[in-house]
Design goal:
Radius of gyration: 21 Å
Oligomer: single chain
Largest sheet: 6 strands, mixed
Shape: elongated
Bound molecules: dinuclear copper ion
Number of helices: 2
Distance between the termini: 78 Å
Strand content: 35-45%
Number of strands: 12
Helix content: 10-25%
Order of helices and strands: HEEEEEEEEEEEEH
């Protein structure tokens, strides 16, 4: 079968581009650990106080593992915080360096988003659904967590602050608790 020279070049180029995209997909999944968040279950958004989201907050599961339950609603994240970032008055959570944290979230009203800077944590928060992601915070410092799904008038106010405390200071804060 005769294939025109230019047509053959375009066939080869198109196939090469698809191959490059597929290779990039494999590298992002296998090397950088980028995965789509999986749906974790359902809750009744009108009766969250009868679910695991009745008492949002951080739970110490031992062995430097934590779970945090967060309810997103217009226009705040409720993580049971009793402390607020003095810089922007956003709710604040503290974990020790190296902690593995699993985030469980749902929405009390409309669709929100959740992204943690310098991490792979990035998902939608949909009423009726539980979203989950796990991340290990090996780097100490401050991480901003934001709603990245436009959700109305005060969308830009919807954020939280996570402080990852350097290992040396854990014993001091744990002793206070
Ligand atoms: Cu919630 Cu944007």
């Amino acid at each position: 079968m005769h294939v025109d020279r230019y047509e053959r070049m375009y066939i080869i180029a198109a196939t090469a581009v698809l191959g490059a995209f597929f290779a990039a997909l494999l590298v992002s999944a296998l090397v950088f650990g980028v995965h789509l968040p999986e749906p974790q279950g359902f809750v009744n958004p009108l009766a969250l106080n009868e679910t695991v989201f009745a008492n949002p907050g951080l739970r110490d599961m031992g062995s430097n593992r934590y779970e945090v339950y967060i309810v997103a609603q217009m226009w705040q994240f409720n993580a049971g915080s009793t402390e607020f970032d003095p810089a922007d008055n956003s709710p604040l959570l503290r974990i020790p360096q190296g902690a593995q944290v699993t985030f469980y979230m749902t929405s009390a009203d409309i669709t929100h988003g959740f992204i943690i800077e310098r991490s792979n944590v990035n998902f939608e928060v949909v009423p009726g659904h539980i979203s989950r992601a796990t991340h290990t915070f090996n780097e100490a410092g401050m991480f901003k967590m934001m709603c990245h799904e436009y959700c109305g008038l005060l969308h830009q106010n919807m954020h939280m602050t996570l402080i990852v405390e350097p290992v040396g200071t854990i014993s001091a804060s744990a002793a206070e608790a």
